[in-house]
Amino acid sequence: MVSKARKAAAQASSNIAGRKNLLYNGSMATTQRATSSSGLGTTSGYYVQDRWRIQLGGSNTVRFTMSLEGASESPDGFQASMKLDCTTADTMPGDSTSDYVIIEQKLEGLDLQPLKKGTSDAEPLTASFWIKSPKTGVHTVSLYDTTNTRSISTTYTIASADTWEFHTVTFAGDTTGTIPNDNTEGLTLWFWLMASTDYTSGTFNTSWASHVAANACNSSQVNVFDSTDNNFYITGCQLEIGNSPTSFELETLQESLFRCQRYHYRINNITGYLYALNEANNYRRITFTHPPMRTNAPTGAISNTISSAASQGFQYAQEKTSTVYGNPSGANTLTLFSSSTVTLTDEL
User: Fold this and answer.
1) Sign of CA dihedral 65, 66, 68, 71
2) What's domain 4-260's architecture?
3) Helices and strands, number each (H, E), in the chain
4) What is the pLDDT of residues 157-190, one digit of tens each?
5) Nearest to 44 by CA among 34, 54, 52
């Protein structure tokens, strides 16, 4: 745990111009998909907070609810936090050597070029965050380089259980392996919550090296899911260039939402109508605009089917426009978007 003096200095200073936080939705306030999702623990994915993914391994028996918590459950100065509430405990993760639970965020190569990774001038990175953990002791944080299959890990230590603590960790710059300047995955930040021996039995990797799973997580890593009494909270996440943390970069909800919509865009509870105009087999379309997506091939979905349609579908037309279409089965009114949700997903 950092000293009060260091924490105060971190929150009172800023020495990097422009957008310094490489992470999206570090305040945990943007939640397009849902504000709560229960029964998690079987499948990796995005569930509540935008850009924050639950990564699972092995056959763990852990089950938990992921939710958005408000200001009353967040540290001073923050209006939101992520909560993981353990509903089914795993007291013996070692029973399956491949079990793990991670909170992660994947970052595009386009956002990472200032790191100068793979050069002699490679920049260090500092992560800072607020944590309320049910477990005292060692917690692991890692960076993973997808392109070059390299990783580095470090730890922070929780002093008081169920208490908000501010922590920072610093990763050295990596002079090996450049990150492509494109929209593919460049780096991933991992917060380990539980890990079995496949990830803790090696030599803990505190310097950049070729990724070896057994070296990724510290052997003293706590298990935050060993009791159904356990709740884990996190917010105020920042990843920035340099050896020291600076004040958290605040965003408005509108700014955060717009940035997150590059990866996931959602329209909720809409109803629209298309008319067959006295003929069948004549496609009707509704076109809508949206923020630019990460690629030209996002996955589109409609929550409800279109009534009276012989066929229907979704087409991503161009950078900022998509179309939902239906082919009437006869000369009648075609109902579209009946209290529906339309989504575009383009996650890394």
Assistant:
1) positive
2) Sandwich (2.60)
3) 3, 19
4) 999 999 999 999 999 999 999 999 999 999 999 9
5) 54
